[in-house]
Amino acid sequence: MKKSILAVVILSILTAFGCQNSSGQSTGRKLSKPAAEWKKTLTANQYHIMVESGTEPPYKNAYWNNHEKGVYVSAATGEVLFSSDDKFDSGTGWPSFVKAVDSKKVAIVQDNSFGMSRDEVIEKSTGLHLGHVFDDGPADRGGKRYCMNSGALKFIKK
After folding, report:
1. Is 143 left (phi over 0), alpha (psi -120 to 50) or beta?
2. Which of 2, 83, 108, 128 has the CA that lies 20 to 30 A from 29?
3. Mind telling me the catalytic residues?
């Protein structure tokens, strides 16, 4: 019985941190502008997510349940990063995609926060944090799950 409870607790913790990074930790990425410059142009939430590598709560963000057709652009630059055609319901509470629109617009860097090794997704041109990518996406669509923060994105309806 104790092992079952422990397993549930561990699974709950891993799920809770599935798309998170600890606030303020740099994970080997270099920003295209000093943080103070980004603070002038981003909202407080966007700054927390994109510069400080923060995250938003699951199921309490703008796009996790968005089913409209359109594109998701960077909240910082307006660059098109993801498409509704590649979005799927991962059950995690964050918007999830099987791929980026253009793989040259995002980069993957190592994130070793919380004692885990994960792949952080950043906007290549700026070094800003977007979310993480995992290998547990739909197998028939490439197997990737790009777990993004809504606060790092803006949705443009078709």
Report:
1. left
2. 83
3. 147
